[in-house]
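wait is this the right file?? whatever heres the structure
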């Protein structure tokens, strides 16, 4: 995912979902997906909200994300789903905006120490809050390899056996740092983009979150994120789950 550069054409479906409210493109991804912020400007609007639109994709779906957000909402701050749907080629998801700014907002790029601490603490809070018992979603290694196979991705045989489970939790599924929201005081306030949420070893999230600090803040912040989460580094599990992320 990245911040759009230049003028972005707004799809007709998104314009309809915005109901006349002003739109700003905030994210784009590698498969052509776009996310817009709609600013609610009248008493009749739904307030500020995010509109995700993109091509259908076998890895996950916005319907999957809507289901996961609805399940997680009683336990942890996540966006409220207002609408979701699809047509023959594309799908969309509309959620109410949460307070706070992404951990890669310029405010936090300029203060990575605070941002990394908030992301680590927020990830630990998510893992502690979401109940494994009763979670209907699976993000374990066999499920991820099966998903990759359906998409025609061949995962090396050496990746099929994971290290022993450290702690089984409900993982975010895309714990890269942009998906934590931080308030002006530097505390995490919510999580977004939970389309892959499911039960797995906590290092499946931790390894990716730590790895993503380098993409967004530069080298040297991975250990600080793990420390903020509250565990000791685990090079074996971290390496395995980084490789699995890159392979799938």
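ok assuming it is, sequence goes like this
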């Amino acid at each position: 995912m990245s911040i759009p550069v230049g003028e972005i054409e707004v799809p007709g479906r998104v314009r309809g979902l915005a109901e006349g409210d002003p739109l700003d493109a905030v994210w784009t991804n590698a498969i052509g997906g776009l996310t817009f912020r709609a600013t609610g400007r009248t008493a009749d609007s739904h307030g500020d909200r995010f509109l995700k639109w993109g091509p259908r994709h076998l890895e996950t779906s916005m319907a999957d994300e809507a289901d996961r957000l609805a399940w997680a909402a009683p336990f942890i701050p996540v966006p409220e789903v207002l609408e979701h749907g699809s047509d023959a080629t594309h799908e969309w998801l509309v959620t109410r905006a949460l307070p706070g700014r992404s951990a890669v907002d310029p405010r936090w790029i300029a203060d990575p120490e605070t941002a990394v601490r908030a992301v680590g603490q927020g990830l630990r809070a998510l893992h502690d809050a979401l109940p494994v018992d009763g979670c209907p979603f699976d993000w374990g290694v066999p499920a991820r390899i099966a998903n990759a196979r359906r998409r025609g991705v061949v995962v090396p045989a050496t990746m099929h056996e994971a290290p022993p489970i450290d702690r089984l939790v409900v993982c975010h599924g895309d714990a890269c740092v942009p998906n934590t929201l931080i308030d002006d005081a530097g505390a995490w306030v919510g999580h977004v983009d939970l389309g892959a949420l499911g039960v797995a070893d906590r290092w499946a999230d931790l390894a990716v979150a730590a790895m993503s600090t380098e993409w967004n803040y530069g080298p040297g912040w991975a250990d600080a994120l793990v420390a903020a989460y509250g565990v000791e580094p685990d090079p074996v599990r971290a390496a395995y789950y980084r490789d699995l992320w890159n392979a799938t």
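DSSP finds eight helices and ten strands in the chain. so i think its the right one actually
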